[in-house]
Amino acid sequence: MTIGFYTWNSLAAVLLALCGLCTPCAAAQETGLVLRGTWTATAGSQTFRGSWGAGISRSNPNSAEGYWTLVNESDERVMEGTWTARKTGTRWRGTWTARITRGRAFSGVWDADISDTKAKTFTDMLRRTIEKEIAGSWQSGRYGGNWWLRGARTNEGTR
Questions:
Q1: Rounded to an integer, what distance in angstroms lies between the CA atom of residue 157 and that of residue 116?
Q2: Per-residue pLDDT tens over the stretch 122-138
């Protein structure tokens, strides 16, 4: 897939803002609670998609860490990365990093305002994705867009 700098920068931001294969999160190892799903994101007029996973800590349910992947039109992984999150008031904020397969690294921030829900913890917010799509925004330098998460609907999505 040949794409310009803007697109790669956008892809990187989109993917980890949500959200490759990485080692299991420390939080997931601590608790065994892992949530997974798919995501879509925009960067200007482009739309991207991939998968995400989250490890939730029982000792701090308002923070989490996870991984995400970006796939191309042929479902080949072209980028992967990690993300972290923390709840502040009704907003969820986090950081992300990503690396293009055999290439450049990117980083940025993401957030979501989930004030219209009864989600009290980050775990609640991610579990909500199984029933209803959640949305937020991402940014990497001067680039940005929106993202949407959907949780897995099978037993494979949670442990």
A1: 24
A2: 778 888 888 888 899 99
